Amino acid sequence: MDKRYKVQVKDLHKSYGSNEVLKGINLNVKPNEVVCMIGPSGSGKSTFLRCINKLEEPNSGHVYVDGYDIADPQVDINKVRQNIGMVFQHFNLFPNMTVLQNITLAPVQLGKMSKEEAKKAAYHYLDLVGLREKADANPSKLSGGQQQRVAIARALAMKPDVMLFDEPTSALDPEMVGDVLEVMKNLAKQGMTMIVVTHEMGFAKQVADRVVFFHDGDIREQGTPEEVFDHPQHEDTKNFLDKVLNV
Amino acid sequence: MQSNHWKKFITACIAVLGIVIGWQLVEPQQASADEPTYTFATNNTFEPFEIQDSKGGYSGKNPGIEIEILKKIAKHEHFKYELKPMSFNGDLQALESGQVDAVIAGMSVTDERKQKYDFSTPYYTDGVMMAVAKNSKITSMKQLKGKTVSAKSGTSAALFLKKNQKKYGYKIKYFDSSNTMWNDVKIGNTAATFDDGPVLQYGIKEGVPLKIVTKKPIDAQPVAVGFQKGKNLELQKKINDGIEWLNKTGQMKQIIDKYTKGNKTAKNSAADRTIMGLLKTNRAALLRGLWMTIELTIVGIIFAMIFGIILGVLGIMNNKLAKGVSSVLIYIFRGIPMIVLAFFIYMGLPNVLGHKVPLFLAGVLTLTFDEGAYIGAIVKGGFEAVDKGQWEAARSLGLPYGKALLQVIAPQGFKLMVPSLVNQFIITLKDTSILSAIGVMELTQTGTVIISQNMEGFKMWLIIGVIYIIIITLLTWLSNYVQKRMA
Ligand SMILES: Nc1ncnc2c1ncn2[C@@H]1O[C@H](COP(=O)(O)OP(=O)(O)OP(=O)(O)O)[C@@H](O)[C@H]1O
Ligand SMILES: [Mg+2]
């Protein structure tokens, strides 16, 4: 494990039955770095992301977050997860709670903050995503874009130092996408370490420090946005970009 | 639901659990002093041998021949006794399992039974008689070919019918109580019924519209107290000494005559037999039965919920052993008919435990396991129906499994379960009536007892049916109210 990296993935393998979905992935993410992951459907991007906070159990390999090996049974995975925020494609807000309760639940339950502190923090993050006035609303009363911004606020309330995003805008109506991406851009500007699976090539070009191209359970190519988008080296990368950029 | 609601709910459950267990532990210990106490199984609808009062006890003026005999003997021989009224089959099972010390239930002494049980000195001679509806043209067994006849299961009448079935070519239908059986003849479902002579005579004297067509009792047999073979010899001796003393002093004849001759036991037949009148006369008994039904339902539901939630939570855990335990228990308890489970707990379990299981506890345990298994399946299904994304969101925030389950999954799952749970609660209420089989004096059993006294089957069952409908309606309203408040 290397202290310079926030997230370090070493030779990660994951199979579902005989279907090998991740074929030995290596990836290092430095503090404050924004990594965008692109690639065709089924190439293993989500699986990779979910291995980082152990929502999926890897078959072999190591994932270090903040120096803790999540594969190590001695490591309290719940502690590690508190430092990894995750945002899902389908938001997954808790429908039995208000927006505010969604955000304060984890900090209060895990003893990170008192109820009062958590409430204050919640309003702070709701300000950040521009939804203060929705604090007492039920999630089902919000638009998709608003729900996703609440989900981001919920993840931020745990004060994580890494944020994982799995296609956060692909379930949204086009006019909602901009607001969510705006929030993510601001986060990146403030120095959050982020790993983002996305089909928003514009966002990747503009915000990413590094673009990683996944293909068939492997990292086929990676580099700065200019390198990957403007001078792709690999045939698979070219094909993929042709398809997504020239629709 | 918020976390403190949960805490309150769980605290309440534990409190109830404590109270019930405490009560159950204290209750059986109140027996006193140096006189030994024996337990007798008896028959709850077997006049003139046993006649329950409206509370299901035998403290009335005319508790029946055998009860009066037992009372006198106990006093004379210095022992105390406790009576367990059940169906005759239940009596025999209870004796075999050692749940009771003896059976005093108009039990006739047959050769077959002599091999299995010990008997006291007989105090009565009993024979089977055949009765038909008042307007029936049947007068002898030869006319029964192809017809349906009835007897109480396990009785000597049943043995007699079985033995002669080929000869006369009838079909046999078995019943658990005389009253239902007679009613079946009255309404024409069965052509003839075979029952103990004195029982029939007594019933007809009390107004049952049947007539006896046998001149002399068939298969006359002595009646005696039954014991487990070779056991309780001390009690056997006391009973025999007591019978001898009663015979010698002429008290035996007095008691028997009181019930079979003249009109001494006749209840006020001028009593009001309208539905309102029946309600008034039996108000206290019905209320007690109703209360027992409600008590069983509430306590049963609470424990079944606890058991069911445990089963449900085990069933969704990421642990093969937990999952296996859950599904095996659900499979077993859903598979066993509740009446079998009740018999097992009340009469089978004491053999393993070495001491008796109090009746109420047996009832609650039966409900807990049977209804709990169904609730377990509902809870498991409800939890599983919650979107997987909810688990992932909760866990990704760092919430441990238990907290994620309690705070996020369970409230959503319960909301999905509510309609099925309400349905199960109503079934639980109805299922309490099955516990009448082991003699719990709930509403149904109360009805059986009352009808055995007043023979008003139609009206009484109508009353009891309506009472059930009313409490089920109330329960449904209550559930809907809770459901609305949760939404
Ligand atoms: N729980 C699972 N069980 C079995 N196979 C799975 C499971 N989850 C994913 N897979 C398979 O793993 C492969 C990679 O899936 P993954 O979701 O990681 O792809 P992806 O790159 O995120 O695709 P998309 O862009 O469509 O989201 C696919 O073939 C998928 O069918
Ligand atoms: Mg995906």
From TrEMBL, chain A:
Keywords: ATP-binding, Nucleotide-binding, Transport. SMART domains: AAA. Residues 7-241 form the ABC transporter domain. SUPFAM superfamilies: P-loop containing nucleoside triphosphate hydrolases. GO terms for molecular function: ABC-type amino acid transporter activity; ATP binding; ATP hydrolysis activity. PANTHER family: AMINO ACID IMPORT ATP-BINDING PROTEIN, ARGININE TRANSPORT ATP-BINDING PROTEIN ARTM. This is ABC superfamily ATP binding cassette transporter, ABC protein. The lineage of its organism: Bacteria, Bacillati, Bacillota, Bacilli, Lactobacillales.
Automatic annotation (TrEMBL), chain B:
One of its GO terms (cellular component) is ATP-binding cassette (ABC) transporter complex. It is found in: Cell membrane. The chain crosses the membrane at residues 290-316, 328-349, 460-482. This is Polar amino acid ABC transporter, inner membrane subunit. Belongs to the binding-protein-dependent transport system permease family. It is a multi-pass membrane protein. It comes from Limosilactobacillus frumenti DSM 13145. SMART domains: PBPb, PBPe. It comes from the Bacteria. GO terms for biological process: amino acid transport. Residues 290-479 form the ABC transmembrane type-1 domain. Keywords: Cell membrane, Membrane, Transmembrane, Transmembrane helix, Transport.
